[in-house]
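quick one
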Amino acid sequence: MSGFSKKIVRKISPFVPKWAKNNIPTGVKNFLRSKYVPRTVVIDIVGTCNLKCPSCPNGNTPNKNPIGMMDLVTFEKILDKIALEHPGTTVAIYNWTDQFLHPQIVDFIKVIHVHGLKSLLSSNLNFIPADLKGLAESNSGGITISLSGFTQKVYGIAHKGGDIEIVKENMRKLSAALKEANSSTCVNVYYHKYKHNLDEIKLMEEFAKSLGFGFGADWAYFMPIEGVKKYIDGNLPEADVKFIETNLALNIKKAMEAAKEFKNEPCLFPSTLLTIDWRGQVQLCCAVYDSGRFSIGSYLDTPWKVIEERLENHPFCKECVKDSLHTYISWHGNSKLRPIYQKIAQEEIQKHNNNNGWQKKNL
Ligand SMILES: C[S@@+](CC[C@H](N)C(=O)[O-])C[C@H]1O[C@@H](n2cnc3c(N)ncnc32)[C@H](O)[C@@H]1O
Ligand code: SF4
Ligand code: SF4
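structure w/ iron/sulfur cluster:
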C-alpha cells in the first residue's frame, strides 16, 4: 500500500463511528492496524533503573543487562533512520529503565521533536532532571509517573528502593515548573494496584489532581515474559513466588488459564512495535528483558526489511504464543480479556479481605 493510501486511511479513521469499528472482526482490525498505524518506537537511553521493583526485571532478575548510556549523536542517527522508516511515530524513551537518569534528557526530547515525532516519558520520579525548566519547556508529549502507594510503608513494598516523600516533593516541583513554563505536557499518575495498596488510591488521586495531573489506576502484573514462564514452570526463586502470591491481585495462574481462550489471536508486537536498547540493539519486543538472548541486531547497521523479517520469525514467539504469554502481557488492550481479568483481580481481593478479617478476629 502506498504512503498516499496510508495517509488517506489515517485521515478517515477518526470519522468512523465507534460502533462500526467495534463490529470489524479482530483479525481485520489487527491487519489494518499493522498496515496503517505507525509502529510505536520504544528506546531505552540508559541501561538501568534506580529502583528494584519486584514485579520488574530490575528487581526480579539476577542476571542484569549491560549498563551504560546512549550518546546523543547515536540517538540522532537512530532518529534519522526512524523518521524515514516510521514517519509520524511516537517515541517512548523508556522500557526497562528510567530516562530521567540520563543527564542530557532534555536534549534527547528535543531531538525527537526536531524529527517531527512525538515523545513519551515514564518515570518513578525518585529522581528528576536538574534542568526542570528545560524539561517543562521541551513540551514532551506526555509524562507518566508510576507509583504504588501514598505512604512509605505501602509504597516501599512494590517500589523497592524508592521514597514516596521524595516522589511527592518531585511531583510538586514538576507541577510548578510546568505551570511556570505554560507547558503543553500532560502528566498522568499511574497507580499500580496490588492486594496491599488499594486503601491509599484515593489519597494519591486527590494529591495528583491538586497538582493538575491526570490519574489512573490499574492492576499490576509480573514482568518480563521470561519470568512469567519461569513462574508457570515452577522455576522462579522462592522470594519472587512469595511476592507474586502475596501481593498480586491479578493471580497469574488464573490469568494464564483465561488467556488460553485467546491464544489464537496473533501477537501484534512484531508488526506494531520497535524496541531498541541503549546500545542501539533492536530487541524482540518490549515484554522480554534478556538482551543477550533477545537482541535482533543493530538498528543502524541492519536494513529495515531484515529487522522486520527477524521480528516476525523469532523462534521464541512460537513458545510465547503456545503458552498464551503474549495475551497475558498485553491484556490492557484486549477488550474481551479485560473484564475477565478485572473479575479475577476482584475475586482475589475479596479472598484477601476475608482472610485478613479472619486473621484480625483470631489475633
Ligand atoms: C518498566 S516501566 C519503565 C519506566 C519507569 N521506570 C516507570 O516505572 O515508569 C514501563 C511502564 O511499565 C509500567 N509498570 C511498571 N511496573 C508495572 C507493573 N507491575 N504492572 C503494570 N505496569 C507496570 C510503568 O508504569 C511504566 O509506565
Ligand atoms: S518498574 Fe520502572 S521504576 Fe520500577 S524497577 Fe522497573 S524500570 Fe525501575
Ligand atoms: S509473541 Fe511474545 S515474545 Fe514474541 S513479540 Fe509477542 S509478546 Fe514478544
